[in-house]
Amino acid sequence: IDMTPPGSSFREGTIVGNTIQARPSPDGANIRFLGGKNLKVGGLLAITGNLIGSQTHNIHLVNCRGVSISGNSLYSAAEHTLWLEDCANIVAGNNNIDWNSDHKKKYLFDGILIDRCKGVTLSNTIIENSFQGSSQTGGAIDVKASEDVAIVNCQVLDFRYRGITLTDALRCRVTGCSRNAKLSDRR
């Protein structure tokens, strides 16, 4: 949903109990909300209890506020499983980020990017086998230029480079998370 044109707005919506699957397409997303400037037109949304996978980005939110993302099974994103840009007051919890183990080799990146956001809580989420980042920067969960982000009780398993990274982050905390950097033979 694109709310960037003047006069556009979206409020009070739900995406619940769906299977949303595609094939990766250039800059494609299974769920994408593009809010207007100053966080005034995109928000009050619940994304709950869905199976979402096999696209370039599984969930991509830009300039949105008041969004709850919970109880979803997310998998096989070519780039980002969850990508938040310029958002505020986002809660993402109790989600499972995995990959389709029927594929003989892991080739998709998966991962979470929180970029230029304020007031984000990521909790009780399992992310396994993320290829996000590089040998120099980034990780399975990457927080950039953001404020008041809490990453709580998450499990980051079998990541390629780093589990959780924070760059230019202010008043952010990581608490009660576990990580396992063991490289598996599935790669």
From TrEMBL:
InterPro entries in the cross-refs: NosD_dom (IPR007742), Pectin_lyas_fold (IPR012334), Pectin_lyase_fold/virulence (IPR011050)
The Periplasmic copper-binding protein NosD beta helix domain, residue ranges: 46-168
SUPFAM superfamilies: Pectin lyase-like
Name the record gives this protein: Periplasmic copper-binding protein NosD beta helix domain-containing protein
